[in-house]
Amino acid sequence: MKDSEDSKMTPWEVSGKVDYDKIMTKFGTEPIDQNIINSLSSLTGGDVHFMLRRGIFFTHRDLGWLLQQISAGEKFYLYTGRGPSDHTHIGHLVPWVFTKWLQDKFHAKLIFQITDDEKFMFNEDLDPDTTHSLALDNALDIVALGFDPKLTEIMIDTDRSGLLYPQAIRIAKKITFSTVKATFGFDVSANIGMIFYTSMQAVPAMIESVRAGKNVPCLIPYGIDQDPHFRIARDVLPRLGYLKPASIMSIFIPPLSGVDGKMSSSDPNNAIFVTDSESVVRKKINKYAFSGGRTSVEEHRKLGGNPEIDVSFQWLKIMFEPDDVKLKKIHDDYISGSLLSGEMKSLLIERVNAFLKRHQELRERAKNILPEFLAEH
Amino acid sequence: MKDSEDSKMTPWEVSGKVDYDKIMTKFGTEPIDQNIINSLSSLTGGDVHFMLRRGIFFTHRDLGWLLQQISAGEKFYLYTGRGPSDHTHIGHLVPWVFTKWLQDKFHAKLIFQITDDEKFMFNEDLDPDTTHSLALDNALDIVALGFDPKLTEIMIDTDRSGLLYPQAIRIAKKITFSTVKATFGFDVSANIGMIFYTSMQAVPAMIESVRAGKNVPCLIPYGIDQDPHFRIARDVLPRLGYLKPASIMSIFIPPLSGVDGKMSSSDPNNAIFVTDSESVVRKKINKYAFSGGRTSVEEHRKLGGNPEIDVSFQWLKIMFEPDDVKLKKIHDDYISGSLLSGEMKSLLIERVNAFLKRHQELRERAKNILPEFLAEH
């Protein structure tokens, strides 16, 4: 979709300023309101993830219905995914961290799809060996986040096509070229793999129902740019006798360059990768993180900074400062001018490096238990 | 392709009069000439299958090149296929019988693809369980023909998608919607599975090279209606570093109703299925086989019949009378009027029933050894 001359959003590209309210209207999704939050809270014993409280996960489809099902004792499962075009960066972790929280709170099974077929077919420069080894590399980051190995099945598409393809053709039969043309903006120069692919991404939304031989509700947390795939899935699945998946969608973590668009691997100075060293993190944030501060310390002390456009503050809000009280103090101190732009960056650097130090250790250990996640269960 | 107002040929539909000379020109294939036959003959110790001598297999691509490779001691493999939309009928057996002869003569490995995914996606009325059980049913007919279990691997697409799909995406990336639109005549209402499918049919043309890690020449015998798939395969495979497959293509066995078009399962009175009983065969041929005879016995005795339009004679020529001397006598006796139309039908009924009696026994025995053919090897 094109929101304006200089903004763009497809499952493969996000650029320019994203108007999330407009997207909700355009996509026909529901805002996450206090009713939803209250229902969730009553099911989790009062715990509401900060990404919900802060509107990072801001919109949904059928989440109210799903929470009613859960209240009534119904089991459900989670599904999310990753397109392995490069190493994992900070932005990818946002929906994963939230999904982990959902798994913990509900002891829900999670299907984690890694779409190496997608990335290979959509990217001229990638070959299948590269996308497959990136899939294995990215899987380590998933494992490192602490998902329950008994409840989590990571499916790399090309390794699991024996399971996925026979289901994908059932979905594909219900989708015309007209539909993918209108949904994704493909034209006749699209390759036939790109055209088919959305049916592979729809399969995990019904796979537990296929396996159980009866409908099992599914909840999909994802970044809002992936919504076109799941609009198609919601259209097709009922025509195959399955439930529409419920969904909960997040905003994007902004690139270092500014609060517009979505962090992307294409410019390494705009993203922080999970494999980045302490010094690289420090350098990237100090050098590239767009600041909402004033041009001089004096002016900043006098007039204060703007946290809304300050990338460091936004990263703290979206991912790295779960404590609302601490976040509010950072916010207020920045506005008042008592917290300087460099100090804001230091705060973020400290948090990111603490997170990455631990993550990189867990990532090493993940190598031993990865096979458990990749096995069918 | 449309040859004229009332004829049509796609991989999924053949109707009207087929002009095989025109097809060779249009598709850019080579006729099977005496040079080819001589080369083949020198490699088989003088044996030339009657389907070659009689122009049933009438055209090829790169067969001369392949025979040179074989002369030079190079190994090659065979690939053919079946779309399981119904029980096997007599028409399906033509390329299989010929492929079996090639396997026997050259001790060549054969990949036999059964495209249950294709039939499911192209046919509104078929569901995946039906196409899969038809795949297993049709596989019995393949086994019954006597292929070497050590040299023959039957691949049912949905059972072997773990092998096929990761290769199909490599092919799919090189094919645009424009190409399949132009090649198969799809429009925007085609489902995305139909659009993707040709890449699955191309995989067996390179799979032995993939497995060997080096190029292994491939020869594909098929009915000429399948040529569009292999034109695409020949275009794409070299761009992935593989050889173009060589091919040898047959005419169609005509339906009982007349020598135009291709036998099809859609009208059961026009086809003889391998599961038909003796009495059903007798009834179908006597009642429906279009005759080149005259309107009365007297006239026939005086003026003679026309074997070119006599379906019974054509079936004997294409499949059921391998002996050239006997076939010539039948032909000449028919023309002279000494062989009546009813006698021609009786000859065919006898041959078909003798073949089917044996085939049905072998088909029963095939159930025990089918797993050997379905296993990866």
Structural key phrases:
globular, 377 residues, 2 domains, homodimer, Rossmann fold, alpha/beta, 17 helices, Tyrosyl-Transfer RNA Synthetase, two-stranded antiparallel sheet
Show the helix and strand layout.
The structure is a homodimer of 377-residue chains.
Chain A (H helix, E strand, L loop, with lengths): L7 E3 L2 E3 L4 H8 L2 E2 L2 H10 L6 H4 L3 E5 L1 H9 L5 E6 L7 H17 L2 E6 L1 H7 L5 H17 L7 E5 L4 H12 L4 H8 L7 H11 L4 H6 L5 E6 L3 H10 L9 E5 L27 H11 L8 H7 L7 H10 L3 H13 L4 H34 L3
Parallel strand pairs in A: 5-6, 5-8, 6-7, 8-9
Antiparallel strand pairs in A: 1-2, 3-4, 4-9
Helix pairs in contact in A: 2-4, 6-7, 7-17, 8-10, 10-12, 13-17, 15-17
Summarize the structure.
Helices cover 51% and strands 11% of the residues of chain A. By secondary structure, chain A is α/β, with parallel strands linked by helices. Chain A folds into 2 domains: 8-250, HUPs (Rossmann fold, 3-Layer(aba) Sandwich), CATH 3.40.50.620; 278-364, Tyrosyl-Transfer RNA Synthetase, CATH 1.10.240.10.
Molecular structure report:
2 copies of one chain form a homodimer. By secondary structure, chain A is of the alpha/beta class. Chain A has 17 helices and 9 strands. The first copy, chain A, has 2 domains: 8-250, Rossmann fold (3-Layer(aba) Sandwich); 278-364, Tyrosyl-Transfer RNA Synthetase (Orthogonal Bundle). In chain A, the strands form 2 sheets. Chain A has a 7-stranded mixed beta sheet. A two-stranded antiparallel sheet of chain A has the order 1-2. The longest helix of chain A is centred in the last third of the chain and has 34 residues, at 341-374. Chains A and B meet through helix 6, helix 8, helix 9 and helix 10 of A and helix 6, helix 8, helix 9 and helix 10 of B.
